[in-house]
From TrEMBL:
Residues annotated as domain Halobacterial output: 15-81
Organism listed in the record: Halalkalicoccus tibetensis
Protein name, UniProt field: HalOD1 output domain-containing protein
InterPro entries (UniProt xref): HalOD1
Pfam families with a match to the protein in the record: HalOD1
Length: 89
């Protein structure tokens, strides 16, 4: 039996602001403006998300880790190794 591979409905790269990439990905996947996207802080702390996936205090890129959480009907994956946000249905 083969196992289906999940394909993201949106994939947005980021450099420093992972929370902005989450909003951009949802906006792209739903054809809604960022202002129409629900508040991210209802499901996750945006400051903590940016702190975990942003550059280190000496401006080095973080090279790993990921987090998954539900938002706006999607399963959101922030991938620190690839520096991207992926949305899954």
């Amino acid at each position: 039996m083969t196992q289906a591979v999940a394909v993201p409905v949106a994939c947005v790269p980021y450099e420093e602001d992972a929370t902005l990439a989450v909003i951009d990905a949802v906006s792209a996947a739903t054809d809604r403006s960022p202002a129409e996207i629900g508040p991210l802080n209802d499901v996750i702390d945006p400051d903590a998300l940016n702190e975990v996936f942003g550059p280190t205090c000496d401006d080095r890129r973080r090279t790993g880790g990921w987090v998954r959480f539900p938002f706006e009907g999607f399963s959101v994956v922030v991938d620190g190794g690839r520096q991207e946000v992926r949305l899954y249905e």
